[in-house]
């Protein structure tokens, strides 16, 4: 028997889920919580194999709850069950230590399959794990965008802003804004230094 | 001359310059602000609201300054309800200064805020004030419509006090506009009926007075005296000098009309004593004139002349007071002006020239030169003062517009957040539960594929609900900020036709309002691209530097001719309003066949870090 606990601030959801698991021969529902705070208090002292929890709850958010429930590898598996499908929210759940994420609007079979995969030791998310890990590292700074490198290449070849603009079907304003941004991003005093810097970093040849 | 109802109401409505001393006294917001120091916001607000109400009656120009200052602060603290209250009082200040356009604009802003916070009483108060202003502007149809709407709300809310006041206004407007005395009287009586429920004696005293004046218009003088006496009796209890003075004056006029000069004289004298003591010069002036008339009719020519002399003296002193005030104002402006570099050099040159020419030129030429320069100087100063004032007015107008925009945008975002949350929390959870229940039926036999169809409709409904909730207010924008929300922007868009690339550089987060504004603009740009541009790629770059934030949005779609775009189209105007509310600007770059680029830049100054 797989011992399962359910957390959702909407009784209508926990009722539906209880029914599904109670009718299933492999599961035993050991706890139903409509308050995340209460779940955080009581669940760590209970023997549970898997916890199915909502993300957006009023008294304590799902993110915080994951951290309270996940204590090392031996503890229960935590699967988030939410109406959200946005990548950044799913990524936050992954980064907080959740073992899986599934949408409430998925079919019962799909939810059951997710639980089985997680119990088998897999991380089950609707996006590749790599993307979830990377999604917070976009902010590191100092890296030029594709468009900027395209412009910088032409600048390095000696084109003026006006020529670059004509070549790329942009206005001078757009080209100048990109040039300004590149100087600020790389902290270089002028375009000549910027071109040097970009060559050193092998952004352009 | 008969003191008509209209005239009396002018007294009632425009006691702007009741106390000249206070008008002249310098009032300093800074001192008020330092005294309130670190007191909790609620206490500060109460104090300022009280002070503002006082200034409205005594010095509305300062009231406007204080009001706008506090509106700004409340706005920063996102206190929509409190801000609406202050905006409404500030609107009254504009009314007192006869600036009816700004008055209406402010009322409208307050009304929008009340609407968004679902404050019906607030909305009704706004409608009532609008009715007042419209009536003053002689837009009587609008006035009646607004007052009627206000009355409906007050009556629905059982707010008898405000309902009574509104009925009085309606009576006033009907009397003035259509001379419809019958309906007007009916409104005054309805007003009394409601005011009695809450024992609002002041309001009843007004209604009675209005009926009295109305009766006198109908030449029912006994009846007029009866109502005015009732009003007077109430006012004696309330002991409000201004109201009492007006009561005595009304009574005296009726008596004078009836030929009862002796009693009229006595009432006029009562009124005069009060109006002199509260320095209500407008009324005092009027009373001197009427007293003189009554004395003449009684045959006391000496007294009649004395009153005329007193009247003349008052007029002179008022004129002097007015002039002193104007001179002080002009002098202050002139002194300010002298600080301007141009004037200084001009004056230096003038003095220098004088020195040089002293010995050489004739006395007469010197005088002509000085006079000429003085005239020139005067003209230049005049032009500069005018230009400066124009600039100040224009600047004030822009900042007020910006403030209004910002408040509306913030209230709107608040409302969107609420709707998105409601959608997601109640509707969304119910749909999810519905889906679970439906799933448990899936093992049973499916009649004609009805089950499958139903399940499909439910899935579509859930997707639609998500997409609406996301467009209203994405959860990731609220929880994780702009950078993450931009990453999620494609989650409800069919990306098989258009790929969206987001590149966020060095984003450390910004103010909530700032982030929301930027997000809404990207949303609008993306909508345009998906609807019209037939683009394969969209690039969004968001950069944050020490001195600026900029966002570059690019698509490789069909583009458009910039000159063919109407700058006042709703979408563009919306974006411009939003951008200007955070002191930024947006520029477009597009040609047919070569995609569209929009560049949004916001310089970060000390003001902008906290828009």
Task: Summarize the helices and strands and which ones pair or pack.
The complex is a heterodimer of chains A (205) and B (611).
Chain A: E1 2-7, H1 11-23, E2 27-33, H2 36-42, E3 50-53, H3 62-69, E4 77-82, H4 87-96, E5 100-103, H5 108-119, H6 129-134, H7 146-156, H8 161-167, H9 172-186, H10 191-200
Parallel strand pairs in A: 1-2, 1-3, 3-4, 4-5
Chain B: H1 5-13, H2 20-24, H3 29-36, H4 41-58, H5 60-76, H6 80-96, H7 100-116, H8 120-136, H9 140-156, H10 160-178, H11 181-197, H12 201-217, H13 221-238, H14 241-257, H15 261-277, H16 281-298, H17 301-338, H18 341-360, H19 363-440, H20 450-472, H21 475-480, H22 482-487, E1 499-505, H23 512-533, E2 537-544, E3 548-555, H24 570-581, E4 585-590, E5 596-603
Parallel strand pairs in B: 1-2
Antiparallel strand pairs in B: 2-3, 3-5, 4-5
Helix pairs in contact in B: 4-5, 4-6, 5-6, 6-7, 6-8, 7-8, 7-19, 8-9, 8-10, 9-10, 10-11, 10-12, 11-12, 12-13, 13-14, 14-15, 15-16, 16-17, 18-19, 19-20, 19-24, 23-24
Highlighted features:
A: 205 residues; alpha/beta; 2 domains; 5 strands; 13% strand; B: 611 residues; alpha+beta; Serine Threonine Protein Phosphatase 5, Tetratricopeptide repeat; Heat Shock Protein 90; 5-stranded mixed β-sheet; 24 helices; flat; disordered C terminus
Can you give a write-up of this model?
The complex is a heterodimer of chains A (205) and B (611). Chain A is 48% helix and 13% strand. With 205 residues, chain A is α/β, with parallel strands linked by helices. Chain A has a 5-stranded parallel β-sheet with strand order 2-1-3-4-5, sandwiched between helices. About 3% of the residues of chain A have low confidence. By secondary structure, chain B is of the alpha+beta class. Among the domains of chain B are: 112 residues, no CATH class; 77 residues, Serine Threonine Protein Phosphatase 5, Tetratricopeptide repeat, CATH 1.25.40.10; 125 residues, Histidine kinase-like ATPase, C-terminal domain (Heat Shock Protein 90, 2-Layer Sandwich). Helices cover 74% and strands 6% of the residues of chain B. Chain B has a 5-stranded mixed β-sheet. In chain B, helix 6 packs antiparallel against helix 7 and helix 7 runs parallel beside helix 19. The interface between A and B is large, with 42 and 51 residues.
